[in-house]
């Protein structure tokens, strides 16, 4: 951003406090007022951690979601939620998440919940967040959301399901903008995971139609990664296959996972910034418990500056932090901000 070079941000999710993990497994022992209180307290904890790290952009940590996208299915009508996991035992991985059956027309008459989350964040922020900090909302895109729904006669394939979900997501992000959200991130990791074998132009069309009502009216971001369920990837980790087509996405900021890729494809950020977007670079590995030092981060920032100007660079973790322990997340964010600060200071920005 021209007014905030070398910006520091997060993707969306943040680890639950331990007590919330326990409570979420024992909800039958709590009433609705108890649950609302827990949600509020967890969001306050996530916001305080992010503010303490010194970030320029924060979220509510997605504390009221079961996962970055799993809770959204609870807002959908026309589906039968899965009753059991396909695999319960053994190493944790993506095949332990099953799919929901579609039993009617897909709709979300009450919205997808992101607006209520943002209103809660605004309320919390009014007391504890500095004015310089931007509040961001994140929501999964329709192609990613379609991945856990089984096709049927009405929706015969994943793209048909995507088309049914697209207006629901579009309406939610429009309402986020109408409620004063200045930065909205549409997460589409499934697009980056499947770009090696699907029509990337089709992905671009889907994405641009999703965000069309808010383009030019608020800051629009896109997050891409190769999966992070239980700290594990699922995609092929080849971001090159997304380019140059993904450069046609009408976003202000495009986020690329880089730390877990050892920064091998770092030159791609030049394509992003040359296309007029800001490049958000993942400089913290959320799948590793190595705590990046401020020196590590500073070196990574300097490497990015060889390809793109400071006023088009944003730095963030590779993905959301929900799969990383809270103690590690705190330190990773603090060191990320400090490393970026040192480079800013050196450049007198």
Automatic annotation (TrEMBL):
Transmembrane segments: none annotated. GO terms for molecular function: 2-hydroxypropyl-CoM lyase activity; 5-methyltetrahydropteroyltriglutamate-homocysteine S-methyltransferase activity; zinc ion binding. Pfam families: Meth_synt_2. GO terms for biological process: methionine biosynthetic process. It comes from the Bacteria. Its cofactor is Zn(2+). Keywords: Lyase, Metal-binding, Zinc. Residues 7-338 form the Cobalamin-independent methionine synthase MetE C-terminal/archaeal domain. Its EC number is 4.4.1.23. SUPFAM superfamilies: UROD/MetE-like. CDD domains: CIMS_C_terminal_like. InterPro entries: Met_Synth_C/arc, UROD/MetE-like_sf. This is 2-hydroxypropyl-CoM lyase.
